[in-house]
C-alpha cells in the first residue's frame, strides 16, 4: 500500500528525538541539505528539542559563517560531534575546544566508510589510516578535548602488523539531499555536483530502525526516474522535503546551478586566466614538476590548487587525471565555493568508493598544504594557532598516495616577495614560522612515511626539502636566496644540508617552462654523449629527478640506444650531482643499472657530491652485486675508467 512520503521540513524534523545520532551529507559548500539544517535549528530554538544529539559528518558542510552544520551550535542541541572537519562550523569547534561538548576529529575517508559498516551491521572498520598521527590511541585517539572519554579508536595487531580499529556508531537519522523524488521516495541526483555518501547514510539509518529524511528540489511522477538513475531507492526513504524557497537548494553557497558541474554540459576551458608570477605560482610551478604523466592526482586546498592552473598553462592537463576525495574523477577541478566538484568530469562516484581507491594506493601523487612542519618531517594541518580546523581527508590521502608534495609559503602572515631578473627577493618576511621545533599536532608522520619509503618533498617559494630517514634535507634553493640569511634564521631547527642545487630558473621567469617536455623526458637523450676516441659514454643526470617508474624506463631506453649506436661495450661515467631518486624507486633504479651494466658496459663509475646520495646509491647497487663505489668528483670517476687493467 502506497503511503505519502512528502512532508514539510518542520514535520520531518519533528521525528528526531532527544539523544539521536544524526548523519548529514555535504562537502565543504556543496550538496548541503540547508533546509533541513535550518528546520532543525528552528525547532530547537523554539522548543528546546531535540537535545543532546550526536552529529556525524565527513567533510565540513557549511560556509564557516553559520550556514550548514554551523546552524547547530546552540548550547544543548549537540552533545557529541564526530567529524573530519570543524573549520566549517567554528562555533561548534569553539564549543568542543571549551569542553562544552564531546568531540572526535577522525579522518574523512574513515568516517565515510564507517557509514557502510553501520549499514552492514559491522562493529567497525580495520585500516592503517591514522597510524602514528593524533588519531592513533598512542597520540590521543582523535579526541579533541578532556570531556571526551570513550575510545572510538583502538590499536590492534593482525599477523604481526599494526592496524587501527574504528568503532562504528549506530545512526538514527540521515539528513540527505537529492534532486528529484517520485511518490515512492526513489531519489535521483541529476542536478547535483556530487553524490557523496547519501546511499550509505540512508542504509545505515534505515537498517538501524531510524529515519531517513531527504531534501529534494522537485517531485516527479511515478515511474519517471529510470531504475539505473535511482541513487537512493525509496525503500530506504521515510520523508521527502521539497526545498522552499529554491535558494535553500543551491548547488553550493556561491553557485545556484552550474550545468557543467552537474555533468549536463561540457564547457571550453582553454581560456582559463594565467596566474600572476608571485609566491603562490612559484610554489605551484615547482610542485607541477612532480606530476606523473598518465597518473592519478589529488590536489588539496590553498597553494596546491594552483598546480591545476599551472598544468593548464603548460598544456599538461590532457596527460593527467585529477580527482577529488568527494568523488569527482577527471575534468577541470573547481575551486572556491565549488571545491570538490569538477567541470567536464569523466565520472563521479560515491565518496566512500573514492576513499576505497585512495586507501588502496590508487593515487600516484597528492599535493597538499602544510600549516606547520618540524625536523622529522611531521606536518600539522588539523590544529594550530588556537583553532581546531580538523584533518578532513588529509590523513587518508597523504598516508596512501605513492608520492606526496607538501606545498606552502616558507613563512606565514604578511610575507611579500618579488621576482627580479629571474631571482627571488624577500621584500617582507612573514610573521610566523611554519618550520617549527615540534608540530602542535601530528597530522602526517614523517618517520612513518620514511619507514615505508614513501617519497615526500616540501615545496616553498624559496627552497625545497626532501624527507629522509634522518628528517628533512634541504635539496634546492631559489636563485637570489641565501641559506644563512633567508632560510636558517626563519626555521626553529637546522635541516640536513649536503649539496643543495639551485631551483629550476624557469620557475622565476614569466614565460612557459617547457613542463610537458620535462615530464615526458623529451630532453633525456641530450644528457647522454659518447666519446668514440676514449670509448666513454657520459650520462649527465645533474638536477634530474627519478619521480616515477616511467622515468627509469625512459632512462634505460635512452642509455641502451646510445650504447647500441656505439656498437660495442662502453665505459660509462654517470653524473648524479643533484639527481633526486624517489625513496621507493631506488630498487627499480638499481635494477636498471644492473641491466645496462650487464648488456652494454665494460666499466662504469658514477659520482655525486651529496654524501646521502652516495650512500643510498651504494646500498642499492651493492644488493645487486655491482660496483658500489660512488665517487665525490668527476675526476675521481674518470680516473677509474681510464686505468689500464692490472
Please describe what this structure looks like.
The chain is 24% helix and 24% strand. It has 16 helices and 40 strands. The strands form twelve sheets. It has an eight-stranded mixed sheet with strand order 15-14-20-25-30-31-32-33. The protein has a seven-stranded parallel sheet with strand order 4-3-2-1-8-11-13, with helices on both faces. A hairpin with a 5-residue loop joins strand 21 and strand 22. The termini are far apart. The model has no long low-confidence stretch (mean pLDDT 94).
Topology:
Blueprint: H1 9-13, E1 21-24, H2 34-47, E2 53-57, E3 78-83, H3 90-97, E4 102-105, H4 108-120, E5 124-127, E6 153-158, E7 161-167, E8 173-177, E9 180-181, E10 187-188, H5 198-207, E11 211-216, E12 218-219, E13 239-242, H6 279-288, E14 296-299, H7 306-313, E15 321-323, E16 328-329, E17 332-333, E18 342-343, E19 347-348, H8 351-359, E20 365-369, E21 372-373, E22 379-380, E23 383-384, E24 387-388, H9 394-400, E25 403-407, E26 411-412, E27 416-420, E28 423-428, E29 432-433, H10 446-452, E30 456-459, E31 463-468, E32 471-477, H11 483-487, E33 496-502, H12 515-519, E34 528-531, E35 536-540, E36 545-546, H13 549-566, E37 570-575, E38 580-581, H14 586-599, E39 601-607, H15 611-622, E40 630-631, H16 634-641
Parallel strand pairs: 1-2, 1-8, 2-3, 3-4, 8-11, 9-12, 11-13, 14-15, 14-20, 20-25, 25-30, 32-33, 35-37, 36-38, 37-39, 39-40
Antiparallel strand pairs: 5-7, 6-7, 9-10, 16-19, 17-18, 21-22, 23-24, 26-29, 27-28, 30-31, 31-32, 34-35
Helix pairs in contact: 4-5, 4-8, 6-7, 13-14, 14-15
Amino acid at each position: 500500500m502506497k503511503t505519502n512520503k512528502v512532508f514539510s521540513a518542520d514535520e520531518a524534523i519533528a521525528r528526531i528525538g532527544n539523544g539521536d545520532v544524526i548523519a548529514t551529507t555535504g562537502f565543504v559548500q556543496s550538496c548541503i541539505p540547508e533546509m533541513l539544517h535550518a528546520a532543525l535549528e528552528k525547532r530547537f530554538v523554539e522548543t528546546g528539542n531535540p537535545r543532546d544529539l550526536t552529529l556525524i559528518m565527513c567533510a565540513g558542510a557549511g560556509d564557516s559563517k553559520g550556514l550548514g552544520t554551523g546552524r547547530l551550535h546552540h548550547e544543548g542541541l549537540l552533545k557529541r560531534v564526530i567529524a573530519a572537519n570543524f573549520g566549517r562550523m567554528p562555533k561548534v569547534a569553539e564549543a568542543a575546544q571549551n569542553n562544552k561538548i564531546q568531540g572526535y576529529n577522525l579522518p574523512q575517508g574513515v568516517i565515510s566508510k564507517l557509514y557502510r559498516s553501520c549499514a552492514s551491521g559491522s562493529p567497525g572498520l580495520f585500516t592503517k589510516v591514522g597510524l602514528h598521527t593524533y588519531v592513533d590511541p598512542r597520540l590521543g585517539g582523535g579526541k579533541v578535548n578532556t570531556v571526551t572519554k570513550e575510545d572510538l579508536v583502538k590499536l590492534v595487531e593482525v599477523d604481526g602488523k599494526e592496524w587501527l580499529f574504528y568503532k562504528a556508531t549506530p545512526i538514527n537519522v540521515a539528513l540527505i539531499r537529492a534532486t528529484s523524488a517520485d511518490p515512492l521516495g526513489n531519489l535521483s541526483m541529476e542536478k547535483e555536483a556530487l553524490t557523496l555518501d547519501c546511499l550509505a547514510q540512508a542504509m545505515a539509518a534505515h537498517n538501524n530502525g531510524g529515519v531517513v529524511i531527504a531534501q529534494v528540489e522537485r517531485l516527479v511522477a511515478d515511474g519517471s526516474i529510470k531504475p539505473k538513475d535511482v541513487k537512493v531507492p525509496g525503500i530506504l526513504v521515510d520523508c521527502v522535503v521539497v526545498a522552499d524557497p529554491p535558494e535553500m537548494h543551491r548547488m553550493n553557497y556561491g553557485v545556484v546551478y552550474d550545468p557543467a558541474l552537474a555533468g549536463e554540459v561540457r564547457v571550453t576551458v582553454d581560456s582559463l586566466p594565467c596566474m600572476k608570477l608571485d609566491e603562490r605560482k612559484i610554489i605551484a610551478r615547482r610542485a607541477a614538476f612532480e606530476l606523473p604523466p598518465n597518473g592519478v592526482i589529488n590536489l588539496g586546498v590553498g597553494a596546491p590548487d594552483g598546480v591545476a592552473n599551472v598544468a593548464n598553462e603548460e598544456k599538461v592537463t590532457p596527460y593527467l587525471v585529477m580527482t577529488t576525495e568527494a568523488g569527482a574523477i577527471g575534468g577541470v577541478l573547481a575551486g572556491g565555493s565549488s571545491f570538490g566538484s569538477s567541470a567536464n568530469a569523466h565520472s563521479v562516484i560515491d565518496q566512500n568508493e573514492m576513499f576505497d581507491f585512495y586507501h588502496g594506493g590508487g593515487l600516484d601523487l597528492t599535493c597538499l598544504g602544510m600549516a606547520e612542519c618540524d625536523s622529522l618531517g611531521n606536518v600539522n594541518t588539523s590544529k594550530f594557532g588556537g583553532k581546531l580546523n580538523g584533518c578532513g581527508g588529509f590523513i587518508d590521502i597523504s598516508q596512501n598516495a605513492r608520492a606526496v608534495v607538501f606545498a606552502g609559503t616558507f613563512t606565514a602572515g604578511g610575507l611579500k616577495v618579488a621576482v627580479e631578473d629571474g631571482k627571488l627577493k624577500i621584500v617582507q618576511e612573514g610573521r610566523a614560522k611554519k618550520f617549527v621545533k615540534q608540530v602542535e599536532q601530528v597530522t602526517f608522520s614523517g618517520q612513518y612515511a620514511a619507514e615505508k619509503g614513501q617519497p615526500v618533498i616540501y615545496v616553498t617559494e624559496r627552497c625545497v626539502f626532501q624527507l629522509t630517514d634522518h628528517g628533512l634535507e634541504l635539496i634546492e634553493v631559489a636563485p637570489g636566496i641565501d641559506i644563512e640569511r633567508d632560510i636558517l634564521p626563519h626555521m626553529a631547527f637546522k635541516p640536513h644540508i649536503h649539496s643543495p642545487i639551485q631551483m629550476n630558473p624557469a620557475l622565476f621567469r614569466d614565460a612557459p617552462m617547457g613542463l610537458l617536455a620535462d615530464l615526458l623526458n623529451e630532453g633525456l637523450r641530450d644528457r647522454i654523449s659518447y666519446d668514440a676516441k676514449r670509448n666513454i659514454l657520459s650520462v649527465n643526470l645533474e638536477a634530474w629527478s627519478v619521480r616515477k617508474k616511467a622515468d627509469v624506463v625512459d632512462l634505460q631506453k635512452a642509455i641502451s640506444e646510445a650504447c647500441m649506436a656505439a656498437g660495442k661495450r662502453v665505459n660509462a661515467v654517470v653524473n648524479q650531482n643533484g639527481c633526486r631518486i624517489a625513496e621507493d624507486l631506488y630498487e627499480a633504479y638499481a635494477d636498471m643499472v644492473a641491466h645496462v651494466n650487464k648488456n652494454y658496459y665494460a666499466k662504469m663509475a658514477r659520482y655525486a657530491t651529496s654524501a646521502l646520495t652516495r650512500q643510498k646509491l651504494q646500498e642499492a647497487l651493492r644488493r645487486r652485486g655491482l660496483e658500489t663505489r660512488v665517487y665525490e668528483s668527476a675526476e675521481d670517476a674518470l680516473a677509474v675508467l681510464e686505468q689500464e687493467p692490472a
